[in-house]
Amino acid sequence: MGLEVRNNRRQPGRSSIVTANRLRDGQVVWLAPGGHWAEDIAVAEVFDNGVIDEAISGARIFEEQRVVLDVYGVELDPAHPCPVPVTERERIRAAGPSVRPDLGRQAKGATVHAS
Amino acid sequence: MRANATLPVGTYGYQPVDLAFLNDRAAQFCDQVARRLSGDLSEDEFKPLRLMNGLYLQLHAYMLRVAIPYGVLSAAQLRRLARIARIYDRGYGHFTTRQNIQFNWIKLEEAPDILAELAEVGMHAIQTSGNCIRNITSDEFAGAAADELVDPRVHAEILRQWSTLHPEYSFLPRKFKFAISGSPHDRVAARFHDIGLIAKPGADGAVGFEVFAGGGLGRTPAIGIRLREWLPEHELLAYMEAILRVYNAYGRRDNLYKARLKILVQALGRDAFAEKVEAEFTAIPKERYRLGPDIVEAIRARFGKPYLDAPEDAPAELSKRRRRDPAFDLWVQTNSHPHRAAGYISVVMSLKPNGGIPGDASAVQMDAIADLAERFSSGEIRVTHLQNLVLGHVRQDELYTLWQALGPLGLATPNRSLITDIVCCPGLDYCALANARSIPISQRISERFSNIELQQQIGPLRINISGCINACGHHHSADIGILGVDKKGEEFFQLTLGGCGEEDAAIGQILGTALPESEAVNVISRVIDTYLARRVPNERFRDTYQRLGATFFKEAVYAAA
Fold first, then answer.
1. Residues B151 and B276 occupy one common structural domain
2. How far is B513 from chain A (nearest CA, A)?
3. Smallest CA–CA separation between A54 and chain B, in Å?
4. Which residues form the domain of B109?
C-alpha cells in the first residue's frame, strides 16, 4: 500500500491534524494554532476532516519557505480527548520508537504513546 | 597482536588520491546542503543529491546509511562510527543486512560534518542509496575461513572501484546488488542478489567465478539463474559490463515494482536473457576491460595481512579452557568458526542479546570492540549480513580472555545461527516505508526462546523479519520468515516457512493468513513444537519441512490453535 493512500485515509465526521518534518533536522512537527510548528502533538491545531485538505494546502507555504518538508494530514482517534493519531505509524512519530522509550518525545513526557 | 605491514588489515588501503576524492565529495555535499537551506535548491532537486550520499528522511529524523565495503572495518573506522553515534546521533547505530550501518537521528545541517569526519578515516556513504550498484557484500569470514578457496575481498574491491561513479551505472532502472564469496559454502546469499559471484580456483590454479544473476527478495522473490559455471578472472569486468548493459537497455523504467533485474530475467526467460548477455559480452572490446593479474595483484597488495604467529600450544590451551568452563565451551561451540591458520579461530560477537534489538550497537560497545579488535584480531572487524560482528583472526590461546571481556559488554550471547539470532529490519519504529513494527515481535520471540538449552535442542534455525514487502529483513530466505503487513491501520504478521539463503537456496512459502503479533509468536512456538516432535535425528528444520510438506505444518499448527 502506497504512503499516499495510507496518509490520506479519512472518515467523514472525524478530525485531523497537519504534520511534517522540519527541514534543518528532520524533527517531526505538528501545525499549531497561529501557524507555527510544534514538536508536541498535544498543541496541534485540530481540523474537521471536511476542511483538512484546505489546511494541508495552506501549510505547504512552509515547504516553500524551507521550514518543513513532506506536509500531510493525520487522522485522529475520536476516542481520545487530546490529539492521538488513528494509526500506529503516526503514534510512533508523535512519541518516538516504541522499542526505545528513552528517545523521542515520549522521553519528555509526551501524551501519545505507541501501543 | 602485531600486523606485518602499515596497511590496514582486511580493508583496502586508500591512497592520497582516494582520500582526496572523499574530501572533495564531502565538500560538495556541504555546498549542496547550504544551497538547499538557502533556497537555491528545491527539495525535488536536492533529494537525489542527499540520497547519493546515503541521507534518507525517515520517521523521526534524517537517517544516514554509511557504507562498509564488503563489511570490513578497521578499529579506527569503528571508533569514528562510535564518535558519530555519540556526537551527532543518540549514542547508537544499527548494522544492516547489507553490512552497512545506519544512524537514525541525523540533522541535515550536521550531515556534511559527518561526511567530513568519515572521509578522514576513508569512509563515506556512497552507493548506499539510489538506483546504482549498492555496497558489495561478502563473506564475514573472508581471508580467514578454513573452507575458503579464494579471498573474495580483492575482487569485491575491484568491483567497488569499477562501479563507483561509473557513468553508465549511476542511473540504473533500479538499485543493483552484488554479493561475492570465495567459499563453496554460500555465506553471502549469492543466489538472492542481482549478481552473485562464487570465486574458485580452476584446475591450473587460476581464479574464476560461478556467476548467478537475477536473484532477489522484495515483493517478487527470485532465485538467481546460473549464467556461467566458470568465468575466467580476466573477463570478470567485461562480463559484469555485459550484464549491466543488458539491464540498462532492457530493464523497465516505467514501473518501480517491475524495474529490478529479476523481473527482466523472468520476462525474457533464462535462455533469452543469457543470449543477450553473451551477445553484449562478445561485442565488448576485451582488452579494454581485461582484468589482468597485474591489476589484481596491485589491489591485493593494498590489503594489509594479519600477522599469524600463534604458539604451538594454542589449540591445547583453548581445549583446556573449554573443559574447565562449560559456558565458555558453549560459546565457542556456537559462536566460532574454523580459521585457515593453525592456532587461530574466528568469532562472532552476537548483536542479538535476549530481548534486544537485532543489529543495534551502542557507542560504548563500538569503542570497546575497536579496542578488543586491536588487542586480539589485528585491528579488524567484520559486519555480517546477519547483523552480527566478527573478529576474524583470534589466537586460540587468547580466546578465553576475549570472551571474558565480551561478556560485560553484552556481546557474548551464545546464539549464533540459533532461533534467537534473528535478522530484523528497523520496521515501523524507524522506517518510513514500513507497514508494521518488526523489532517488538523479534523481542517477543527472543524472550520466548531465551533458554539456551532449548535453543540448543532446536538447533540451527533462522528467523528473519521484515516490516514491509521490501524485505530488508530477508524474510523469504529464512526457515521461518515474518512479514509485517498493514490491515486497515493494524499490524499483522504473515509467516513463511522453508526459505534458505545458502547454496540450496529456497524461497519460503506462506503458511496461512496473517496474524496479530501475539498469535504469530504462538504459531511460531507450535511450528517449533511440530518440528521437534517430527524431525528425525540431525534433520534440519528445512529438511523436515520439505519431507512433511507445507500442508502438514499448516494443519498441525492451526489445528492446535
1. yes
2. 18
3. 22
4. 16-120
